[in-house]
Design goal:
Blueprint (H helix, E strand, L loop, with lengths): L21 H19 L9 H13 L15
Length: about 80
Amino acid sequence: MTKVKLQKLPTQPYKGTRDLLPDEMSVRTQLVEALLQRAEQGEVLLLTNALVLAELVWTLESFYKLPKANEGLFAMS
């Protein structure tokens, strides 16, 4: 297992991602990347719901202008 060295999180209250300084975003990015690596290795299970996935798809398509690659990618059973 690869160890990821993380910086200490800022002690300021969370203000929203638009208000974060670049170094604060870097710390949060490191935390998320470490969590996703652990999930990929089967160490943790990440859960979400359909609303979060819909919001993700909408953001990727409308704000980032990413094309629809696969209509069935987020199909819920």
